[in-house]
Amino acid sequence: MNEFDEYEFWFDAYTPETIPMERLAKYMAALAKMLGHGTSVHFDRMVSGSTVNILKVGREDAPKVFHRLASVGTGDGVADAESGFDELNVLLRDDNAVGRLSRKPAASSASALVLQFPGRDAPRPHKFGPFSEPAVVDGELVRIGGKDKSAHAWIVDPEGRTWSGELSRELAREMAPHLYQGALLRVSGDAKWERNENAVWTLLQFKIHAFELLGEDSLGDATKRLRQLQKTDWDGVDDVDGFITAARGDGEELH
Q1: Is the pTM value of this prediction over 0.85?
Q2: Sign of the alpha-carbon dihedral angle for 11, 13, 14, 20
Q3: For the segment 47-97, what is each residue's pLDDT rounded down to a tens digit?
Q4: In this structure, is the dihedral angle defined by the CA atoms of residues 70, 73, 76 and 82, taken in order, positive or negative?
Q5: DSSP for 48-104, written as a single string
Q6: What letter would DSSP give residue 38?
């Protein structure tokens, strides 16, 4: 008796002979993330025709993998499984393709559809920007320099994110003594943002116009203080972008 569940991932882009290795690797990585249970999920073979990948799942983890896939899109799915599903849809959309995942249980000779991937047919979120607005970042100065008329500073905020900003050489000289001193700086300026079709915000440009020293506290102490703050009304806002837009009265336009 077959000891493996067999999964067939089909999509109508490329063939086994034409798909670039790098592209195939991205599909396989997203599939692996979606299925999880890495030690029990194995690539078996590719089938001719459209691109079809055959995967096998060991009997011990087969029910767990099936349950994981069945929860995708229900609101109760595992985060990695949902993320893998979304990544596959983006890959398919970019390849102008659709896909499907079928399962043949170990004790059966028949396959049944598990998931469909709309890919090119999925509605695309709106793209916003680029637009500019004032920005303030608190953090530690970890790098500063530049060879042209302007300079650049790198700030790490209390959550570990790195912000890169452009500033004048004069301002860079004033800021330089605080490099790696553990002091918390507040830098302010103008930021240019863009939201892509995957609803991901990207900082395109940050021009720093001023900074101030907030104190000699370490970033660790600052982070601790931030996390000890009481909950605010923001915790109850599901769509922060929409809330801000409505509050600003922008309607459909960004200024």
Answers
A1: no
A2: negative
A3: 877 788 899 998 888 999 999 999 998 888 889 999 999 999 999 999 999
A4: positive
A5: TTTEEEEEEEETTTHHHHHHHHHTTTTT---HHHHHHHHHHHHHHHHTT--EEEEEE
A6: T
Query: How big is the CA angle at 189 (ends 187 and 193), to the nearest 5 degrees?
Result: 115
Which residues pair with residue 137 across a beta bridge?
187
SS3 content of the chain, % helix, strand, coil (to 5): 30, 35, 35
Evaluated on CA atoms 184, 189, 194, 199, the torsion sign reads positive
ω into residue 125 within 30 of 0, thus cis? no
Helices (H), the chain: 21-35, 62-70, 79-94, 169-175, 219-227, 240-248
